[in-house]
User: Which sequence fits this backbone?
């Protein structure tokens, strides 16, 4: 991978954080440097940017029609994967998160090199952030994507394992995973147009 390509890629990804509260100044390390030195990326306060995206194993997934289905992060290798973690009662999810994934889905839902999913990560408000709410939101925002529900287990203190593994700062939490499985962006918000333009650059 050329250094010129890496520079351009970093510049494009930096644009994703235009609306973030505290977007990192550099959103993607030079992969050549990491490969040559074997250095482990510095872990940030939240998220796992520059690390491999872990699998998300849930017992509740629904397809675009609301029917039970399955979804695997690992099976999306070779594609750009955009994920949104949300809660039904989260104001920021409705103001920022859902409009972003809605617009992203309108652009890329049928693209063979892009995958999209949204997962309700319930760490509070269990009477409102329910499994049925997942389908309600899917219909409300007309999202033709697979969606899941993660309320944790006793083993995780009823905290969603997906939130633990992805070290999220709460909801909404937006994640972009590169085709090689590396998380290249994760934050509360992203500039929607920059996000779409970046992915367009990668799949064109």
Assistant:
């Amino acid at each position: 991978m050329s250094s010129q390509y890496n520079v351009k890629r970093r510049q494009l990804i930096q644009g994703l954080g235009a609306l973030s509260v505290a977007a990192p100044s550099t959103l993607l390390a030079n992969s050549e440097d990491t490969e040559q030195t074997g250095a482990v990326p510095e872990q940030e306060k939240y998220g796992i940017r520059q690390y491999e995206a872990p699998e998300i194993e849930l017992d509740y997934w629904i397809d675009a029609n609301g029917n039970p289905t399955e979804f695997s992060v690992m099976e999306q290798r070779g594609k750009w994967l955009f994920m949104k973690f949300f809660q039904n009662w989260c104001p920021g999810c409705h103001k920022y998160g859902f409009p972003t994934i809605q617009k992203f889905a309108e652009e890329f839902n049928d693209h063979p090199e892009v995958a999209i999913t949204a997962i309700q990560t319930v760490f509070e408000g269990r009477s409102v952030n329910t499994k049925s709410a997942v389908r309600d939101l899917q219909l409300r925002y007309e999202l033709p994507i697979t969606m899941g529900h993660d309320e944790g287990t006793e083993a995780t203190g009823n905290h969603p394992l997906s939130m633990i593994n992805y070290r999220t700062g709460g909801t909404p939490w937006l994640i972009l995973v590169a085709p090689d499985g590396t998380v290249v962006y994760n934050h509360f918000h992203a500039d929607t147009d920059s996000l779409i333009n970046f992915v367009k650059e990668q799949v064109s």
